[in-house]
TrEMBL record, chains A, B:
Coiled coil: none annotated. Pfam families: TetR_C_7, TetR_N. SUPFAM superfamilies: Homeodomain-like. PROSITE patterns: HTH_TETR_2. InterPro entries: Homeodomain-like_sf, HTH-type_TetR-like_transc_reg, HTH_TetR, TetR_C_Proteobacteria. Residues 30-49 bind DNA. Keywords: DNA-binding. The keyword NAD does not apply. Residues 7-67 form the HTH tetR-type domain. One of its GO terms (molecular function) is transcription cis-regulatory region binding. This is TetR family transcriptional regulator. It comes from the Bacteria.
DNA sequence: GATAATCCGTAACTACAATTACTGATCCTG
DNA sequence: CAGGATCAGTAATTGTAGTTACGGATTATC
């Protein structure tokens, strides 16, 4: 099998494993079930990934990178920070509360090695937060843009993620996502007056 | 065994199970390990709790109630909402990021039935949030105190819990807890001007 | 005190998942 | 095209955890 073909095959395996993880949970996602789902043999899986933890590391890495890549803002959006956040906020909520990310977080919660959590945090938050910090650095001239990032994320997401992971919350719908993002942005601009006041009027009166 | 003695024995079992959960994680907390840790027989555990999920439901319920009870504010503290939050905020952070709650959340994340998550959410958040909402209702005369609760919790905790659960964060130390609570309170008071402005001067200048 | 119920310590049973091994089919390379 | 490497399908091995069963010790009740 050539490198290109193996790469595509690995991706197929890693995506199938995530689908199983989402559908059946961590405990029920076995090497045998992955092999069956993708029409591969156990011997191949063990040869390519070493062992089950190895498969899971690769699977989490590949999938979280892809989800992360769908989140990154292009440099062009930095020209209008408000518009950038208006677009980014809902996307971030949707991804972080998605069934896929919830399943990945659950796998990390169950992983005694800590590897999965490390991969998720470094690849996910570790990429998104600096980007937000960069945006706030430009938009707000604050001496602590990283702190603004924490505040924004707190306002935007609150404890959604833990509630999703412990199974006490369905994914938020599009309306709720929109409202949540708008509220977070509105509150952020009230807290940091240097924020460009280019909010649509419908948002500026959302809070008494 | 009399009712009183059995009640005490059950509590001993449920506490020992939590200690094992904290120390070894969900996967390694077996019926056999619980029995051994507390000097009970498997037959007794199965007779009293039915099965492993039953033991876990009881264990989570008993322990989360105890943790919750240590968090509730007395009615007397409502007289001074700021002081109440200054005292409550750090306590809430400390408890929610503790090894015990992290272990319980991890068990819930691994539980396909959803029962553990339900118990945790209803007993924990379900008790704390209404209390906060009541406090904000008095302190702020807002038309939506429940929304203020969400905002406060977002500012106070952000994504600490999920980061603890996936293993990417140690428990915050006392200084960090204090700073986090003070910041959340300061930001909340800036957002909602009806908030009594009785902050100590050291806090009011904490943000430029 | 005698008897029944309960609990402890331990063995046994069953199912299942991780991993390795094997054979034959398929693919790749020279 | 031939030979070697790789992969699929499947069986086998091993260890472990959930659960049940059993005999003896302890406790509770009459």
């Amino acid at each position: 099998m050539r490198q290109e073909a193996q790469k595509a095959r690995r991706k197929e395996i890693e995506q199938a494993a995530l689908a199983l993880l989402v559908q059946h949970g961590y405990a029920a996602t076995t090497m045998a079930s992955v092999a069956k789902a993708v029409g591969a043999s156990l011997e191949t899986l063990y040869k390519w990934y070493g062992d089950k933890p190895g498969l899971f590391r690769a699977m989490v890495q590949a999938n979280i990178e892809e989800l992360r890549d769908g989140l990154l803002m292009s440099a062009a959006t930095f020209r209008d920070p408000i518009a950038a956040l208006q677009e980014f906020g809902p996307r971030l909520i949707a991804v972080l509360t998605s069934e896929e990310v919830v399943a990945l977080n659950r796998a990390a919660a169950a992983d005694p090695s800590g590897d999965l959590g490390r991969i998720i945090a470094e690849t996910g938050r570790g990429s998104i937060a600096p980007q937000l910090t960069g945006l706030f650095d430009r938009a707000m001239e604050s001496d602590d843009p990283a702190q603004i990032t924490e505040i924004y994320l707190g306002l935007l997401l609150g404890d959604l993620q833990i509630r999703r992971v412990i199974g006490r919350m369905p994914p938020p719908d599009a309306t709720e996502i929109r409202q949540r993002s708008d509220r977070a942005l509105e509150l952020l601009c009230r807290l940091f007056p240097a924020c460009p006041s280019k909010l649509p009027s419908e948002i500026s009166v959302a809070f008494a």
